[in-house]
Write a structure and sequence with these properties.
By secondary structure, this protein is mainly alpha-helical. It has 17 helices and no strands. Helix 14 packs antiparallel against helix 15.
Amino acid sequence: MPDSASRRAPMPLAVYILGLSVFALGTSEFMLSGLLPPIADDMDVSIPQAGLLISAFAIGMVVGAPLLAVATLRLPRRTTLIALISVFGLGQIAGALAPTYEVLFASRVVSALACAGFWAVGAAVAIAMAPVDSRARAMAVMIGGLSIANVLGVPLGAFLGEHLGWRSAFWAVGAASAVALVGVLTRIPHLPLPERKPELRRELAIYRDRQVWLSVVVTALAAGGVFCAFSYLAPLLTDVAGLDAGWVPWILGLFGIGALIGTTIGGRVADAHLFGVLLCGIAASTVFLTALALLASSRAAVVVLAFLLGLSAFFTAPALNARMFNVAGAAPTLAGATTTAAFNLGNTSGPWLGGTVIDAGLGFAATAWAGAAMTVLALAAVAVSLRLQRGGPAPSRLIARGAATAQAAPSAAGARRP
């Protein structure tokens, strides 16, 4: 009965504010998928070079997540979130004003560093305010911000890019960041730090656990496989499927609708069936990527597969996040940072691999084959992780149980303060 009650307990409003903030972050991260052609034309670079702007953001996330998690370990969570969302918004303004490709590239890296820090700290705050057996549901709320970004933000960015120029999309995200800042200022509570101050050496001990590294591998490969193809979806739709450019925002929105549905379903079932969600979701992504490679010239098939890829990728996302917090619970901020870095390691390697395939003359459809190869490797890593899981808890998870007991009570009490 207590377990059922905690599962029915509503999420704190602050978690939804974090999800709203993630909407702005996610729009900036993913909107370039619909803006690559106009950016390439305006900056006089190739499509693969423009695609490196996606990788630049992802690299900033990979580096920034653990770096900022460590740097802000002893700082107040709310103050840290305010500072990071402010820097992120300024990065969007810099991108909108960028006179050259190099300046735009640098603005993406700076924005990504702030985005990474916000994700890492925000995830730790969300986990602290949620019941232990509702972690995937709490993360689903935050990831829901990404899903809505794909439903609304990314298509809107593509629409603005088509009609008002790609820079207008950056201005729009800057405005969304300002709204998110107001939400954080007014709705995120002051969370007291644990009575026992975080110690870097103790936090870093989580990296001795093989399951932590397996979680990184699974997350990176699963994300990378999908975004290897998704990053070049716009040119695939126009150059291979033969669709008019005006269809691109709508199909990106369809991907986002699939992502929103996938996040909702995955968040509800992942707490009880975590490995089942991982295996089913990644296997489905593999099938859909293979189908996309085979049917890329079919307009109807590409439209349907865009929706299904969003569904499968984001169905898996809450479980990927929750898995890391389960195996690295002794260091919740570093757990959030590591998950963020892992996702964006995939978001770096995926577009890079896709660009390499295109530069090799294999065509835009071949990015889906490369993505499917990555997700197959992710499935293999999940199988290894499951086998180790059945062998018993690792030392870092034994440490996590004691640390969670010491930290959860003050964090939860602070989260409930108005």
